[in-house]
Amino acid sequence: MDRIAVLTSGGDAPGMNACIRAVVRAALNNKMDIYGVERGYAGLIKGEITRLGTRSVSDMIHKGGTFLKTARCSEFKDVEVQRLAAEALSAYSIDGLVVIGGDGTFRGAKDLCDNFGIKIMGIPCTIDNDLAYTDFTVGFDTAVNTVIGAINNLRDTMHSHDRVSLLEVMGRHCGDIALYAGVAGGAEYVLVPEIPYNLDDIASSIKKSYLRGKTSNMIILAEGAGDRDEIAEYIQKKSGINVKVTNYGYIQRGGSPNMMDRVLAARFGYKAIELFKKGADSCAIGIKNNKVITMPFDEVAKAEKTFDNELYDIAHVLSL
Ligand code: ADP
Ligand code: F6P
Fold first, then answer.
1. Is 59 a catalytic residue?
2. Of 103, 111, 128, 141, which residue is the catalytic one?
3. Whole-model pTM above 0.90?
4. Which residues in 66-130 belong to E strands, given as ranges?
């Protein structure tokens, strides 16, 4: 294995650049040639491939986003489109690929392995933390900390005006950002797609807390758990208390990665190259109980994401 390529795919996340840097430096350290593919699978099928050197990743460790750029490429589900990717890799005599992304990226990787025998190592990097086989994905911790900053600011203004704040954060199918930010930000209510909730109960509890003298409440809503404006309107109508909506949006996806994400990126990137060196089979890399682990892509696809119900209960018990 002496010629490797690396790409980033799906939604960008803080720490993607740190992952690329780790892969590039570890590969060069092992005398491998290393190539960067621009714009994920969309760029791969068009042959957007360039040679990288150690200076290509200088001054990158602290930068959010991805200098290789990323893209969604829905046509990649088609095996004939995947063939173009395999041909592009073959044209450069590349015999191994590192993909950095989330579950969709790993599904694409599995297809490339199964249909064309490409050797691939996957690094989990998405703010959503929605991959079941790993405790954490690169980017999640930074995104949650960014959201906590927003909660702190909202607390100041909501408290001053005796208002309820409803903050929408990312997570279409996974409530981890809402859950962790809610616990760390001291939110009273955390609404996630994994757990049903009752708006009448929330409105009545907000009203009761107001009568007890608690005049400000914080609701964190994962984007996949309901319509922010409808929820706010309903609670306001039922409780009689002003509910202000904030959609934090893409701000939470940018920014400099924190220590946790940089260290994870370094461990994962290093591991990817070690696996190539050993001639290991294609797999996804992850972290369980602070140990770097690997799992074949077909098992990753089958693993069911569990939700941390205990942390969810803690969020609500501590918010009284
Ligand atoms: P993420 O990797 O963050 O989950 P996406 O779900 O957008 O982001 O997936 C990234 C890319 O992976 C998609 O744009 C597509 O090119 C590829 N992909 C997603 N699902 C599949 C699939 N079932 N088969 C092949 N490729 C896929
Ligand atoms: O997968 C990461 C993510 O940020 C999700 O939380 C969000 O739902 C989605 O990407 C947004 O995607 P796009 O960048 O295509 O709007």
1. no
2. 128
3. yes
4. 96-101, 120-124
